[in-house]
Amino acid sequence: MLFFLSLSRPAACFTMEKTDMCNSSMVSTSHDVEESWDDEFQQLVQTFPKDKSFTGMNLYFFQGFWCPSIVLKAVISCQKHFQSFDSDIIIATLPKCGTTWLKALTFSTLYRNQFAREKNPLLTYNPHSLIRFIDYDFYFNDTGPDLENCTLYQLRLFSIHLPYASLPTSIKDSNCKIVYLCRNPMDTLISFWSFFSRLRGEGFEPVSLDEAFEMFCQGINEFGPFFDHVLGYWRASQEKSSKILFLQYEDLKEDIKTHLKKLAMFLGFLSLRNKRNNELLKK
Questions:
Q1: Cα gap 280→283, rounded to integer Å
Q2: Beta bridge mates, 244
Protein backbone atom coordinates (compact mmCIF):
# COMPACT_ATOMS: atom_id res chain seq x y z
CA MET A 1 0.00 0.00 0.00
CA LEU A 2 1.32 3.45 -0.85
CA PHE A 3 2.58 5.39 2.15
CA PHE A 4 0.25 8.33 1.58
CA LEU A 5 -2.76 6.23 2.51
CA SER A 6 -1.75 6.45 6.16
CA LEU A 7 -1.34 9.40 8.52
CA SER A 8 0.31 7.28 11.18
CA ARG A 9 3.86 7.43 9.81
CA PRO A 10 6.18 9.50 12.07
CA ALA A 11 7.41 12.84 10.83
CA ALA A 12 10.83 12.93 9.22
CA CYS A 13 13.32 15.71 8.70
CA PHE A 14 12.17 18.15 6.06
CA THR A 15 13.70 20.91 4.00
CA MET A 16 12.02 24.28 3.86
CA GLU A 17 10.92 25.49 0.48
CA LYS A 18 10.13 29.06 -0.44
CA THR A 19 7.46 29.80 -3.01
CA ASP A 20 6.35 33.16 -4.29
CA MET A 21 2.89 32.51 -2.88
CA CYS A 22 4.13 31.55 0.57
CA ASN A 23 5.02 34.79 2.31
CA SER A 24 3.48 37.03 4.94
CA SER A 25 2.58 39.79 2.49
CA MET A 26 0.36 37.41 0.55
CA VAL A 27 -1.28 36.14 3.72
CA SER A 28 -2.08 39.68 4.79
CA THR A 29 -3.20 40.97 1.39
CA SER A 30 -5.66 38.28 0.29
CA HIS A 31 -8.45 40.62 1.39
CA ASP A 32 -7.02 43.40 -0.81
CA VAL A 33 -6.95 41.05 -3.79
CA GLU A 34 -10.60 40.14 -3.28
CA GLU A 35 -11.48 43.84 -3.07
CA SER A 36 -9.85 44.37 -6.47
CA TRP A 37 -12.05 41.81 -8.24
CA ASP A 38 -14.50 43.29 -10.73
CA ASP A 39 -18.26 42.88 -10.24
CA GLU A 40 -18.55 40.00 -12.70
CA PHE A 41 -15.85 37.99 -10.96
CA GLN A 42 -17.28 38.87 -7.55
CA GLN A 43 -20.61 37.40 -8.61
CA LEU A 44 -18.92 34.24 -9.87
CA VAL A 45 -16.95 33.77 -6.66
CA GLN A 46 -20.07 34.15 -4.53
CA THR A 47 -21.22 30.79 -5.90
CA PHE A 48 -18.14 29.04 -4.43
CA PRO A 49 -18.02 27.73 -0.83
CA LYS A 50 -15.55 29.75 1.25
CA ASP A 51 -13.36 28.90 4.24
CA LYS A 52 -10.12 30.02 5.84
CA SER A 53 -6.94 27.96 5.91
CA PHE A 54 -4.87 27.54 9.07
CA THR A 55 -2.32 29.71 7.23
CA GLY A 56 -4.74 32.64 7.42
CA MET A 57 -5.54 32.68 3.70
CA ASN A 58 -9.10 32.76 2.40
CA LEU A 59 -9.89 29.65 0.36
CA TYR A 60 -12.61 29.07 -2.23
CA PHE A 61 -13.80 25.58 -3.14
CA PHE A 62 -13.39 25.54 -6.90
CA GLN A 63 -13.55 22.45 -9.14
CA GLY A 64 -13.20 20.15 -6.16
CA PHE A 65 -10.20 21.79 -4.47
CA TRP A 66 -9.54 24.69 -2.10
CA CYS A 67 -7.97 27.51 -4.08
CA PRO A 68 -6.32 30.45 -2.26
CA SER A 69 -8.25 33.61 -3.06
CA ILE A 70 -5.07 35.45 -3.94
CA VAL A 71 -4.47 33.20 -6.97
CA LEU A 72 -8.04 32.20 -7.87
CA LYS A 73 -8.44 34.63 -10.74
CA ALA A 74 -5.00 33.75 -12.11
CA VAL A 75 -5.85 30.04 -11.96
CA ILE A 76 -9.05 30.53 -13.95
CA SER A 77 -7.24 32.69 -16.50
CA CYS A 78 -4.49 30.09 -16.83
CA GLN A 79 -7.04 27.34 -17.41
CA LYS A 80 -8.66 29.34 -20.20
CA HIS A 81 -5.60 30.64 -22.00
CA PHE A 82 -2.50 28.51 -21.39
CA GLN A 83 -1.36 26.58 -24.46
CA SER A 84 1.04 23.75 -23.81
CA PHE A 85 3.74 22.60 -26.24
CA ASP A 86 4.36 18.88 -26.71
CA SER A 87 7.93 19.51 -25.55
CA ASP A 88 6.94 21.20 -22.27
CA ILE A 89 7.92 19.77 -18.89
CA ILE A 90 5.55 20.47 -15.98
CA ILE A 91 6.53 20.00 -12.33
CA ALA A 92 3.41 19.36 -10.24
CA THR A 93 3.28 19.29 -6.44
CA LEU A 94 1.31 20.35 -3.43
CA PRO A 95 3.00 23.14 -1.44
CA LYS A 96 5.62 21.91 1.06
CA CYS A 97 6.12 18.57 -0.69
CA GLY A 98 9.64 19.16 -1.99
CA THR A 99 8.87 21.57 -4.82
CA THR A 100 12.17 23.44 -4.51
CA TRP A 101 14.21 20.24 -4.50
CA LEU A 102 12.39 18.77 -7.51
CA LYS A 103 12.79 22.02 -9.42
CA ALA A 104 16.55 21.99 -8.84
CA LEU A 105 16.87 18.33 -9.87
CA THR A 106 14.76 18.75 -12.99
CA PHE A 107 16.46 22.00 -14.02
CA SER A 108 19.92 20.42 -13.70
CA THR A 109 18.84 17.32 -15.62
CA LEU A 110 17.02 19.11 -18.41
CA TYR A 111 19.52 21.90 -19.07
CA ARG A 112 22.79 20.25 -18.05
CA ASN A 113 24.33 20.64 -21.53
CA GLN A 114 23.34 24.29 -21.91
CA PHE A 115 25.87 25.79 -19.49
CA ALA A 116 29.17 24.93 -17.83
CA ARG A 117 28.95 23.35 -14.36
CA GLU A 118 30.59 26.36 -12.71
CA LYS A 119 28.02 28.63 -14.38
CA ASN A 120 24.95 26.67 -13.33
CA PRO A 121 22.26 29.33 -12.58
CA LEU A 122 21.26 27.35 -9.49
CA LEU A 123 24.51 28.53 -7.90
CA THR A 124 23.14 32.07 -8.04
CA TYR A 125 19.36 31.93 -8.24
CA ASN A 126 16.61 30.27 -6.23
CA PRO A 127 14.94 27.44 -8.21
CA HIS A 128 11.63 29.32 -7.99
CA SER A 129 13.19 32.21 -9.92
CA LEU A 130 14.27 29.84 -12.68
CA ILE A 131 11.15 27.67 -12.90
CA ARG A 132 8.02 29.78 -12.64
CA PHE A 133 4.52 28.77 -11.62
CA ILE A 134 2.28 28.83 -14.69
CA ASP A 135 -0.77 30.25 -12.99
CA TYR A 136 0.14 32.92 -10.47
CA ASP A 137 3.55 33.88 -11.85
CA PHE A 138 2.40 34.44 -15.43
CA TYR A 139 -1.36 35.00 -15.25
CA PHE A 140 -1.66 37.02 -12.04
CA ASN A 141 -1.81 40.36 -13.88
CA ASP A 142 -1.86 39.27 -17.51
CA THR A 143 -4.34 37.09 -19.43
CA GLY A 144 -1.98 36.84 -22.40
CA PRO A 145 1.64 36.60 -21.21
CA ASP A 146 4.39 35.88 -23.74
CA LEU A 147 5.30 32.30 -22.86
CA GLU A 148 7.09 31.48 -26.10
CA ASN A 149 10.06 33.57 -24.97
CA CYS A 150 9.83 32.98 -21.23
CA THR A 151 13.05 30.97 -20.90
CA LEU A 152 16.64 31.34 -22.04
CA TYR A 153 16.96 27.58 -22.48
CA GLN A 154 15.65 25.07 -24.98
CA LEU A 155 12.46 23.32 -23.82
CA ARG A 156 10.04 25.11 -21.54
CA LEU A 157 9.97 24.07 -17.89
CA PHE A 158 7.10 25.18 -15.63
CA SER A 159 5.62 24.28 -12.26
CA ILE A 160 2.08 24.16 -10.93
CA HIS A 161 0.17 23.29 -7.74
CA LEU A 162 -3.20 22.54 -9.35
CA PRO A 163 -4.82 19.10 -9.02
CA TYR A 164 -4.65 16.95 -12.13
CA ALA A 165 -8.36 17.33 -12.91
CA SER A 166 -8.02 21.14 -12.89
CA LEU A 167 -4.96 21.41 -15.12
CA PRO A 168 -5.42 23.46 -18.29
CA THR A 169 -6.90 21.23 -20.99
CA SER A 170 -3.90 21.79 -23.25
CA ILE A 171 -1.59 20.21 -20.65
CA LYS A 172 -3.73 17.08 -20.34
CA ASP A 173 -4.33 16.75 -24.09
CA SER A 174 -0.81 17.50 -25.34
CA ASN A 175 2.23 15.23 -25.28
CA CYS A 176 4.00 17.33 -22.65
CA LYS A 177 5.47 15.50 -19.67
CA ILE A 178 4.47 15.93 -16.02
CA VAL A 179 6.74 15.14 -13.07
CA TYR A 180 4.76 14.81 -9.84
CA LEU A 181 6.23 14.63 -6.35
CA CYS A 182 4.21 13.60 -3.31
CA ARG A 183 5.23 13.42 0.33
CA ASN A 184 4.18 11.72 3.54
CA PRO A 185 1.04 13.64 4.62
CA MET A 186 2.17 14.06 8.22
CA ASP A 187 5.49 15.56 7.13
CA THR A 188 3.66 17.79 4.66
CA LEU A 189 1.38 19.09 7.41
CA ILE A 190 4.24 19.72 9.87
CA SER A 191 6.27 21.54 7.23
CA PHE A 192 3.24 23.57 6.12
CA TRP A 193 2.24 24.53 9.66
CA SER A 194 5.79 25.33 10.80
CA PHE A 195 6.55 27.41 7.72
CA PHE A 196 3.39 29.50 7.84
CA SER A 197 3.52 29.90 11.62
CA ARG A 198 6.69 31.93 11.09
CA LEU A 199 5.19 34.01 8.30
CA ARG A 200 1.75 34.93 9.57
CA GLY A 201 1.30 38.68 9.38
CA GLU A 202 0.40 41.01 12.22
CA GLY A 203 -3.15 40.66 13.46
CA PHE A 204 -3.31 36.93 12.72
CA GLU A 205 -3.74 34.73 15.77
CA PRO A 206 -1.44 31.69 15.87
CA VAL A 207 -3.06 28.37 14.96
CA SER A 208 -2.20 25.33 17.07
CA LEU A 209 -0.90 22.18 15.44
CA ASP A 210 -4.04 20.37 16.65
CA GLU A 211 -6.24 22.88 14.82
CA ALA A 212 -4.12 22.64 11.70
CA PHE A 213 -4.28 18.83 11.88
CA GLU A 214 -8.08 18.85 12.04
CA MET A 215 -8.37 21.20 9.06
CA PHE A 216 -5.81 19.21 7.07
CA CYS A 217 -7.72 15.98 7.71
CA GLN A 218 -10.88 17.72 6.51
CA GLY A 219 -9.04 18.66 3.33
CA ILE A 220 -9.14 22.40 4.05
CA ASN A 221 -5.70 23.51 2.94
CA GLU A 222 -4.19 25.25 -0.07
CA PHE A 223 -4.89 23.18 -3.21
CA GLY A 224 -6.23 20.34 -1.05
CA PRO A 225 -7.72 17.98 -0.11
CA PHE A 226 -4.30 16.35 0.13
CA PHE A 227 -5.41 12.81 -0.69
CA ASP A 228 -7.53 13.88 -3.67
CA HIS A 229 -4.56 15.77 -5.09
CA VAL A 230 -2.15 12.85 -4.71
CA LEU A 231 -4.56 10.18 -5.91
CA GLY A 232 -5.53 12.28 -8.93
CA TYR A 233 -1.97 12.31 -10.23
CA TRP A 234 -1.27 8.72 -9.15
CA ARG A 235 -4.27 7.37 -11.06
CA ALA A 236 -3.38 9.47 -14.11
CA SER A 237 0.20 8.15 -13.95
CA GLN A 238 -1.13 4.58 -14.04
CA GLU A 239 -3.10 5.36 -17.19
CA LYS A 240 -0.43 7.53 -18.86
CA SER A 241 2.92 6.29 -17.61
CA SER A 242 4.79 7.78 -20.56
CA LYS A 243 3.34 11.22 -19.79
CA ILE A 244 3.35 11.37 -15.97
CA LEU A 245 6.20 10.36 -13.66
CA PHE A 246 4.99 9.85 -10.09
CA LEU A 247 7.74 10.26 -7.49
CA GLN A 248 7.75 10.05 -3.70
CA TYR A 249 9.80 12.41 -1.55
CA GLU A 250 10.91 9.67 0.84
CA ASP A 251 12.14 7.49 -2.03
CA LEU A 252 14.27 10.36 -3.33
CA LYS A 253 15.83 10.83 0.11
CA GLU A 254 16.55 7.12 0.46
CA ASP A 255 18.07 6.55 -2.98
CA ILE A 256 18.63 9.78 -4.89
CA LYS A 257 20.84 8.19 -7.56
CA THR A 258 18.28 5.60 -8.67
CA HIS A 259 15.44 8.10 -8.81
CA LEU A 260 17.51 10.78 -10.51
CA LYS A 261 18.31 8.19 -13.17
CA LYS A 262 14.59 7.44 -13.41
CA LEU A 263 13.87 11.15 -13.85
CA ALA A 264 16.54 11.52 -16.54
CA MET A 265 15.23 8.49 -18.43
CA PHE A 266 11.67 9.83 -18.24
CA LEU A 267 12.82 13.15 -19.69
CA GLY A 268 14.65 11.29 -22.46
CA PHE A 269 18.20 12.09 -21.38
CA LEU A 270 19.43 8.61 -20.42
CA SER A 271 19.24 5.16 -21.97
CA LEU A 272 19.40 1.88 -20.05
CA ARG A 273 22.25 0.83 -22.33
CA ASN A 274 24.15 4.11 -22.11
CA LYS A 275 27.58 3.41 -20.57
CA ARG A 276 27.93 7.07 -19.59
CA ASN A 277 24.96 6.93 -17.18
CA ASN A 278 27.04 6.85 -13.99
CA GLU A 279 29.28 9.67 -15.22
CA LEU A 280 26.28 11.84 -16.11
CA LEU A 281 24.58 11.19 -12.76
CA LYS A 282 27.71 12.27 -10.88
CA LYS A 283 27.61 15.58 -12.74
A1: 5
A2: 178
Q: What is the 3-state secondary structure (H, E, C) of 185-202?
A: HHHHHHHHHHHHHHHCCC
Handedness of CA 61, 65, 66, 71 (dihedral sign): negative
Instruction: Name the CA radius of gyration of the chain, rounded.
Output: 19
Contact 179, 102 (CB under 8 A): yes
How many Å apart are CA 164 and CA 166, to the nearest integer? 5
Residue-wise pLDDT tens digits, 36-94: 899 999 999 999 999 998 888 899 999 999 999 999 999 999 999 999 999 999 999 99
Instruction: Give the catalytic positions in this structure.
Output: 161
Sequence spans of domains, the chain: 25-282
Report yes or no: 133 and 160 within 8 Å, Cβ to Cβ: yes
- Report residue 271's pLDDT band, with 50, 70 and 90 as the boundaries: low
**Domain 25-282 listed as CATH 3.40.50.300:** yes
How many Å apart are CA 50 and CA 26, to the nearest integer? 18
